Structure to design on (426 residues):
C-alpha cells in the first residue's frame, strides 16, 4: 500500500472521511488523497516525497506561493511575543487601516477567524441594521457553512429555499430566497414581491465555488440599484476574490460598490483569518457600539495578523497583479489551445490569479452550465495530471489558483503534462 493510502486509512479511523474539510477527500474524482508533507513556492510534496505543481494554493490564500520567506519571518517574529492575548493590539489597527486604504468601500472593518464567520456576521449585521429578516443569495455561490446559507432554490420562482445539508431545519432557511446567478430579472421580481422585508443580498461578485463564473454585464449593477431602491444592504462576499482577482477585488474591476464586504483567505496569507467591513453607519450597529452581537476569542490573532499585514504589503508592490494575471492567462490560453489541438471540448477563463477550466465549448454563466460539462473528461484529466505531478482541484466545481511563484517554467511544465493527458481524452 502506498504511504498516502496508508495515511488515508489511518486518518479515516480518527477523522470522519479522513479529512477536516470535505473536498479534500477526492470523493468526486475517486482515488486516494495526497497527504502534504511540505510546500515551497508553487510546489508541494506529498507523503511519498512526490512533487506537485499546486493550483489550489490552499484554495486561494497562497498567492505569494507557499512558505514565502518574508511571511514566514513575520509569523516567527510575532510568535515569539505570544500567540494570543484576548486584548487589543496595534497590529490589528495596522491591518484594519491597510484594508480600508486598499478597498475604498470599507470604512470600518472587524476581524474574525474564518470566512464563514465573516459572512455569517455580515448577514446578522445587515438584518440587525435594517430590522428585516429575508436575505437573497444565488444558486452555486458558497458563503461558508452557516445554517441559513446552506440552501438551494426551491421549486418555482420566488419560493424560499430548501436546506442542502442535513441538520438544517427548513425554518432556518425560510427567510433565504435563492435566485440563479446572473438572473437580474429574478432579483427585480424578488424585490418587487418582498422588497420591504429584504435585509440584504449576498453574492460572490465573481463566483468561485461553482468553478469560476463571471457576472454578466448589468447583473451586479442591478443588485446595487435594487438594494439602494429598497433600503437593503448589498454584501459582496470577496472571501475568495479579495486581493486575488485584483488589488481591490471584484468591486475594483466592475466599479460596483457594495455596502459590506467579506474577506478571508488571501488577507491571512495562509493563517486563519476573516474580516467584514463597509459603511461606518452600518458597522456601528455591532457590539459594543450597537445591538448586533459578534465576537471571537482568537479574532485578530497576532500571528495571523502579522502574516496578513506582510502579505498585503507584498501584494501592494507595483505591477504585482499585472504579472499574476499574465501568468494565469498563459496557463488558461495554453490549456485551451492544447485541448483544441486534440479535439477535446474545453474552455477556460481567468481574472487575476484565479481561473476556471470547463469541459464544455462555452464558458458557463451559471450553475446549470457548469453542471453540463463533461464530468468523465474532467475526472480523467484530473487523475492524468495528478500522475504527471500537477495538482488541480479534485472537483469540477472549484476554481483554480496561480501564485506569483508560478513562473514560465512551471506553466510550461504544466502545459507539457496537459498535452500528454488531453491526447488520451479524444
Ligand atoms: C472559502 C469561502 C468562504 C468560507 O471561508 P472559510 O474561511 O472556509 O470559512 C466564504 N465565502 C467564499 C466566497 C469562499 O470562497
Amino acid at each position: 500500500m502506498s504511504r498516502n493510502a496508508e495515511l488515508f486509512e489511518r486518518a479515516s479511523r480518527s477523522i470522519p472521511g479522513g479529512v477536516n474539510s470535505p473536498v479534500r477527500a477526492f470523493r468526486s474524482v475517486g482515488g486516494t488523497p495526497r497527504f502534504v508533507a511540505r510546500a515551497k513556492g508553487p510546489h508541494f510534496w506529498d507523503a511519498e516525497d512526490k512533487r506537485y505543481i499546486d493550483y489550489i494554493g490552499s484554495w486561494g490564500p497562497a498567492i505569494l506561493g507557499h512558505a514565502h520567506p518574508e511571511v514566514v519571518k513575520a509569523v516567527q517574529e510575532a510568535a515569539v511575543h505570544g500567540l494570543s492575548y484576548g486584548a487589543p493590539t496595534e497590529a490589528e489597527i495596522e491591518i484594519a487601516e491597510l484594508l480600508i486604504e486598499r478597498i475604498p468601500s470599507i470604512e470600518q472593518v472587524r476581524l474574525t477567524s474564518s470566512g464563514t464567520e465573516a459572512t455569517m456576521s455580515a448577514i446578522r449585521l445587515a438584518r440587525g441594521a435594517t430590522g428585516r429578516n429575508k436575505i437573497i443569495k444565488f444558486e452555486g455561490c458558497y458563503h461558508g457553512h452557516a445554517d441559513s446559507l446552506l440552501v438551494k432554490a426551491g421549486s418555482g420562482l420566488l419560493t424560499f429555499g430548501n436546506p442542502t445539508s442535513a441538520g438544517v431545519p427548513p425554518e432556518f432557511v425560510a427567510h433565504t430566497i435563492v435566485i440563479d446567478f446572473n438572473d437580474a430579472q429574478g432579483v427585480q421580481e424578488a424585490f418587487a414581491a418582498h422588497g420591504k422585508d429584504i435585509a440584504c443580498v449576498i453574492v460572490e461578485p465573481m463566483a468561485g465555488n461553482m468553478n469560476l463564473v463571471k457576472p454578466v454585464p448589468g447583473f451586479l449593477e442591478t443588485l446595487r440599484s435594487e438594494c439602494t431602491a429598497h433600503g437593503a444592504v448589498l454584501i459582496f462576499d470577496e472571501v475568495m476574490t479579495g486581493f486575488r482577482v485584483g488589488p481591490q477585488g471584484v468591486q475594483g474591476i466592475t466599479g460596483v460598490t457594495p455596502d459590506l464586504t467579506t474577506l478571508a483567505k488571501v488577507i491571512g496569507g495562509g493563517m486563519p483569518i476573516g474580516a467584514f467591513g463597509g459603511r461606518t453607519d452600518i458597522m456601528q450597529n455591532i457590539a459594543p457600539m450597537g445591538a448586533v452581537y459578534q465576537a471571537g476569542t482568537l479574532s485578530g490573532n497576532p500571528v495571523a495578523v502579522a502574516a496578513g499585514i506582510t502579505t498585503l504589503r507584498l501584494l501592494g508592490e507595483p505591477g504585482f497583479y499585472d504579472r499574476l494575471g499574465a501568468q494565469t492567462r498563459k496557463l488558461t490560453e495554453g490549456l485551451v489551445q492544447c485541448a483544441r489541438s486534440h479535439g477535446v471540448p474545453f474552455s477556460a477563463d481567468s481574472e487575476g490569479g484565479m481561473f476556471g477550466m470547463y469541459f464544455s465549448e462555452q464558458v458557463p454563466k451559471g450553475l446549470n452550465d457548469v453542471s453540463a460539462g463533461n464530468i468523465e473528461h474532467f475526472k480523467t484529466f484530473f487523475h492524468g495530471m495528478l500522475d504527471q505531478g500537477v495538482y488541480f482541484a479534485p472537483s469540477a466545481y472549484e476554481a483554480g489558483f496561480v501564485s506569483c511563484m508560478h513562473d514560465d517554467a512551471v506553466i510550461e511544465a504544466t502545459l507539457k503534462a496537459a498535452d500528454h493527458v488531453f491526447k488520451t481524452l479524444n
DSSP finds 13 helices and 16 strands in the chain. The mean pLDDT is 96. The radius of gyration is 21 Å. The chain has two domains: 3-67+319-425, 69-315.
